[in-house]
Backbone:
């Protein structure tokens, strides 16, 4: 089954404790992305990756890191989480052909609470 | 810059009512436009898309037409069902960049 998986689905942590949220897709997509969803703000793109070893900042990259060492995986790293990073996080992947982006497939989300 | 503005919610409709959710955009180049739907507790799913001016995207009775002259991509459905209750997001990606931009989402509740 074609899918994007994220782990963990729920996480409660404390300020300053490094954490990683994993994302994996089995569709051989070149493009992968991380978003955060906050009430009244919709989805905002954190980072995206066009392919292995190619990453770029979205609208809200501060406090986050990413890496793309393999095509299928795109982990999101919070080196020193703060309470303002409490949010619902989504990973997504997509293909890009003929100059246009195709459908983004989204993971189920990770609800992060930073105390 | 690029941005998407969609109508504020929440929207509450009776079953079989007509639905319109407005979406306007600002973009460099020639964007592709999307509507995504998010059911409670789930990730987003593509509802429909349009990649050039005057294209009409359609799926599951929903439609939206890419209007370049009014920079709009309004979502419509002629007769909503209770199962359409969800949050709807308008989004774009410009052909001059690789970043996606989403609206703030519009919550729809359909009552029997």
Residues:
């Amino acid at each position: 089954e074609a899918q994007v998986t994220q782990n963990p689905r729920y996480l409660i942590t404390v300020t300053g404790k490094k954490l990683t949220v994993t994302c994996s897709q089995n569709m051989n997509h070149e493009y992968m992305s991380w978003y955060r969803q906050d009430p009244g703000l919709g989805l905002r793109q954190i980072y995206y990756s066009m392919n292995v070893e190619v990453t770029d900042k979205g609208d809200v990259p501060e406090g986050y890191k990413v890496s793309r060492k393999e095509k299928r995986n795109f982990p999101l790293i919070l080196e020193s989480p703060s309470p303002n990073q409490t949010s619902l996080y989504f990973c997504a992947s997509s293909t890009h052909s003929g100059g246009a982006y195709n459908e983004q497939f989204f993971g189920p989300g990770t609800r992060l609470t930073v105390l | 810059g690029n941005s998407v503005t969609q109508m504020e919610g929440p929207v509450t409709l009776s079953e079989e009512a007509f639905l319109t959710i407005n979406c306007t955009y600002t973009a460099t180049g020639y964007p592709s436009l999307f509507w995504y739907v998010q059911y409670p507790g789930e990730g987003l799913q593509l509802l429909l898309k349009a990649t050039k001016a005057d294209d009409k995207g359609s799926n599951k009775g929903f439609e939206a037409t890419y209007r370049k002259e009014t920079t709009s991509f309004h979502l419509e459905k002629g007769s909503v069902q209770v199962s359409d209750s969800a949050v709807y997001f308008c989004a774009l990606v410009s052909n001059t960049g690789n970043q996606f931009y989403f609206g703030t989402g519009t919550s729809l509740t359909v009552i029997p």
About this structure: Chain A has a mean pLDDT of 93.
